[in-house]
Amino acid sequence: MSGLVALDPARHETVRFDAAAAGRGRAIAQLGRGEIALAACDMPLCFAKDGGTGRFNLVALMALGGDNLFAGAGGFHATYMPQAVLLGAFRLAEGGSGLAIDPADASIGARGAALIERGAVTSLVAELRAALQRLVEDVAAARALAEALARHRLLRPWRLVLRRAEAREHALDGLYTIDEEALAALDEAAVVALHRDGSLAAAAVIAASRQQLERLRQLHDAAQPDARIVVGELRLTSEPRARLDNHVI
Amino acid sequence: MSANQRHDDAPVTEVVVVGGGSAGWIAACRLAAQAQRTRSGVAVTLVESARIPTVGVGEGTWPTMRNTLAKIGISETDFVRGCDAAFKQGARFAGWTDDSPGEGYYHPLNPPAGATELDLAPHWLAQSDAPEAADFATWVDFQATLCDAGLAPKSITTPEWVGQANYAYHLDAGKFATLLREHAVERLGVRHVLGDVARVEQGDGGDVTALVLADGAAIAGDLFVDCTGFAALLIGGVYAVPFRRCGDVLFADRAIALQVPYDREDAPITCHTVSTAQAAGWIWDIGLWTRRGVGHVYSSAHIGDDEAEAALRRYVGPAADSLTARRITIDGGHRERFWQNNVVAVGLSAGFIEPLEASALMLIEASMDAIADRLPRTRGAMRVAARQFNAAFTHHWARIIEFLKLHYAITKRTDTDFWRDNASPATWPDGLAERLELWRTQPPAPQDFDHAREVFSWPSYQYVLHGMRFDAHYAPIDPAAPESALARRHLARAERARAEAMQRLPRHRDLIRAVREHGLQAV
Prior knowledge:
By secondary structure, chain A is of the alpha+beta class.
C-alpha cells in the first residue's frame, strides 16, 4: 500500500478496476463485523494485532505461508470475497476525486470497469467510496467485538505450524482465536451480556471457522500437488512464563 | 481445653496493616487479593495517619513487581498509566571500577544465555584479552545492546507482563501508593481507616490485640503488619526489637534527591537505571514518563552535605538551578527479628539500605509473598511462620548487604578515602570475603549460596564481578570440548535474538506512549 496515489482524471484515464483479479498477494484480509457469517463459509477467521496499537483486528486467513489460495487466474474461487480484498486497491482520500488507488494492486490495470471516462470520474468511484465508508464502520464494529472478547479473556494465541513434505517447518505466528475453555467458564452475567450484543454468536462462528483450515490445506495441495503440506496447531498448556524474578532461571 | 490451647487454636481472620505508604498498600492488596481468590474469609483493614507523610521509598523495582501486580489484579496498562511508569532493563554502573572517562558496565535483568544449561563465564574469560573482545554483559546476552540503543524490552503487540527481554519498572512512588489504595478499597474490599494510633493494647503473652486511635476507636486484629516506616510503631515502639546497623560495611548514610523535568517532550527515556560513582558515593538517575528522578547517595563521614548537593547539581547541570533538593537520612540496617508475636514488620520498619540495587520494593514484595501466600490459619501456626520468616529474611538482608558491598569492595579506584576504605577487606562481611577468595578461581555458581532462591543469584554476581574486571583465573577452556560447542550454540542463539530485538523493538518512549494511548493486551 505504499504506492497509493490520488485518483486523477488527467493521469488515470486508462486505469480500470477488475474486481475478479483482487486478492492476489494478500495472505490475510481485515474483516468487518457484518462479514463474519459470510467469510466463515470459506475461510478461517481469527484475530491479529495491529502493529501500531496492539489492538486486535478480525481477519480472514487466505494463505498458508504463500500466496492467496482463493485468488487464481480465473478469478476469486470462494463463495464470498471480503470487502477489504475487493476494495484493497482503494483508500478514501481528501479532496479531488475523494479516492486514492494503488496502481500496483492486481485489480488495477487495463481490464475491468472504468474509473475515469471523458475526463471525469465514473459512478463507480462514488460506489467505491461508499463501500469504503461502510467498510471502515464495519471494521470499527469488528474491533469493538474483539475488544469485548479480549476484555473477557476469550482470546488465545493460535499458533499454526506448517510442515512440508521435505520436513521444513514454518510457523504462522501472531494469530489469535477464541478460547473455548474460557468461553465455557464465563459467568452467567457475562454470558447474558455477550449474548445480548451478539458477541457470543459471533465468537461461536469464529471458533467454528477454524475448521476451514482444512479447506486451505486442500486448496494448497491442489495448487501444489508436489509440495503437499500438513497444518498443525501448536497448543500450549499454558503461556510461556515470563522471567519474573531478578535472574531466576 | 487450656488457655494456651485456646490461644493456639484461635483462627487468624482479621489482619490489620498499619501505615499507608507503598509497603502498607502492597501488603493490604496482597492480603486482600489472596483472601478474595481463596474466599478464606480473612478481612483486611489498613490504618493510616492523615498527618504523617509517606517517605516514598523506591522508584525502581525488580521484575518481581510484574508478578506482584498480576496477583493483586492491577493490569500492566493501568499501572503504567497510573504511576507514570517506565520500563527498566537493569542498571549501568558508570565509574565504579575506575574513574577513567566512559568506564562502566551493565547489570542487565536477563540472565546469561544458556544459563540453565551451562556457565558462559569461563568461556568469556578465556577470550576476554583478545582485541575488540566484548564486555561480559554484551558477550553473554543482548540486553545491554538494547539499553545502549534506548530500545524497549517489548513492543505494543507483546501481551502484558511478557517481554522479549526481562524487565522491571521505574515508577512514581506517590502515584503508586494512590493506585494501590484505590484498587485496595474499591476492588479488593480493604477497610481504610484514617486515624492516629494513640495506644496499643496487648493481651496475655504480649500479643497486640487492638490499636486505639486518637478518636477512641479500637481496631482489633489477629495479625498486625507494621508498615509505619522509620517510626516502626509496633516492631520498635511496642516490642523494641533491636536494630542491626550496617554502617561499618555500607558507608552511605545520606541522600539528596531532585526531580528533573525533561528538556523537551520527546526526550529519550533511558531504559535502565544509571548509577554514576562519585568521590564519596554515587548518583542515581532514573527515567519516568514525565521526569527523571536523580539523587546523590553518599557517606557523610567522607563528604559534607553541601558539597554533596553541589556535586548532584553539577551532574544535573543548569536544569537543577530552579529545583529544590530533598535531603534524606539513611540509617542502614535491619531489625534483628522481623516477626515478633503477632506483629510482622514490612518495609522501612523492617530495615533500610541504600537503593543501589533497588531492593526496597522487592523486599516488601518478598515479605508479602511469604505472609499472604502462607498466612497462618491459627495463632499457633504463627509461631512457626514467624520463625521461618525471621530466618529467611535475616539471610536475605545479609546477602543483600554483601552484594551491595561487592560493588564497592572490588573497585580499582583509589582516588578518595571513600573508595580506599571500601576496598579495605577489614570492611567486608566474612561471607563476601570468603566467596571472593573462591571466585578468584571459579565463577559464582548456585552451589555457592545457602538457599535455593537467593535474592541475588549467581548471574548477578557474575555481571558485577566481570563488569568490574575482577581478577579471576578459571580453569582453561578446551575449544574442542562438547561444552564449548554448547557454548557456541547458545552464543549464536543470543546473537540471533540480539539482531531480531534490535530490528523489531521500539524506542522506549514510543512504547510507553503506545501503552498509555492504546493499552497492552492480556494475551
